[in-house]
Specification:
With about 290 residues, the protein is an alpha/beta fold. The protein folds into 3 domains: about 5-85, Arc Repressor Mutant, subunit A, CATH 1.10.10.10; about 90-160 and about 260-280, Periplasmic binding protein-like II (D-Maltodextrin-Binding Protein, domain 2), CATH 3.40.190; about 165-255, Periplasmic binding protein-like II (D-Maltodextrin-Binding Protein, domain 2), CATH 3.40.190.10. The protein is about 45% helix and about 20% strand. It has helices at about 5-20, 20-25, 30-45, 60-85, 100-105, 105-115, 130-140, 170-180, 195-200, 215-225, 235-245, 270-280, and strands at about 50-55, 55-60, 90-100, 120-125, 145-150, 155-165, 165-170, 185-190, 210-215, 230-235, 250, 260-265. The chain has a 5-stranded mixed beta sheet, with helices on both faces. The chain has a 5-stranded mixed beta sheet with strand order 9-8-10-7-11, sandwiched between helices. Helix 1 (about 5-20) crosses helix 2 (about 20-25) and helix 1 crosses helix 4 (about 60-85). The chain is elongated. About 30% of the residues are buried.
């Protein structure tokens, strides 16, 4: 009987799911040479090649694709068996990507719930813009992300967690200058941000001043509070500044809000990640 270890099959399935040896190495917390060695060991045991090189990419062979199809149901059943009645004993590192708006609103409660119910699970949280988070998710560098959207991609599964209203704001001093005809500097998150797109939809393109960008939402708010211009800002992050009179509304609010979604890869099979995604789908950003 061929001596095939579980890690051989796990490696094969993650390469098939993520598309590259490098992404599988990242997901399994190992190196690409180790992944390559596991594939060679598996091929030696079964007696036929699993991958063939096409340019710079390694593609599954016909028999390799069939082995993946045959193995996936068995692996899924094994994962379900190991996870059954043992969620509290789950352990490992789950990599989460989030934007600043989600991090400042619904994420703290989510983190507290996970730490309570899964004490042996470590959350590795990184803050980034939606475009980079989506790339990291599809590339296997993140397991679960909270995106500003809507995001439509065949490679991900999403769950809506609500929407955030936007408001045009400036400091009281800047608002007074604007009322007297002054032209204020216009600030925004970078062009790839959905907030930037709503801003462009709101303003007349012909009358746009030069747009200054900042890739940190909290710093952007501080810039506007300091009287350095005006910006379209997420309501959830500026309520305190509005209540204290540090910011005032300077024009009509956009009708469009920014939708937020939790997302995982469409091919995700890890029981812990699936459970965290299920719980994330019950969050409501506010």
């Amino acid at each position: 009987m061929n001596r095939i270890a579980l890690y051989h099959l796990e490696t094969l399935l993650w390469i098939a799911r993520l598309g590259t040896f490098a992404a599988a190495a990242e997901r399994l917390n190992t190196t690409q040479p180790t992944i390559s060695a596991r594939v060679r060991e598996l091929e030696a045991q079964i007696g036929y090649p699993l991958f063939q090189r096409e340019g710079r990419r390694m593609m599954l062979t016909v028999r390799g694709r069939q082995l993946v199809r045959d193995t996936e149901p068995l692996w899924a059943a094994l994962e379900r068996t190991l996870a059954a009645d043992n969620q509290a004993g789950a352990r490992g590192v789950v990599r989460i990507g989030t934007g600043e708006i989600a991090a400042a609103s619904c994420l703290p409660a989510f983190v507290a719930e996970v730490e309570r119910d899964f004490p042996a699970v470590t959350l590795d949280i990184g803050i980034n813009l939606t475009a980079q988070m989506l790339q990291d998710l599809l590339g296997g560098k993140s397991d679960l992300v909270f995106l500003a959207g809507p995001v439509a991609s065949p490679g991900v599964v999403t769950a809506s967690i609500g929407a955030v209203a936007l408001r045009w704001l400036a400091s009281p001093h800047s608002a007074a200058a604007l009322a007297q005809g002054a032209q204020l500097p216009l600030w925004s998150l970078p062009r790839a941000s959905p907030l930037h797109q709503v801003m462009l939809e709101t303003l007349s393109v012909d009358a746009l001043p030069a747009i200054r960008t900042c890739n940190n939402a909290r710093m952007l708010i501080d810039i506007i509070v300091a009287g350095q211009g005006m910006a379209l800002l997420p309501e959830t992050m500026v309520r305190g500044a509005l209540a204290q009179g540090e910011l005032v509304e300077i024009r009509e609010r956009p009708q469009r809000a920014i939708e937020f979604q939790a997302a995982i890869r469409a091919e995700e099979r890890d029981p812990l990640v699936l459970e965290l995604f299920r719980r994330a789908g019950g969050l409501r950003i506010d």
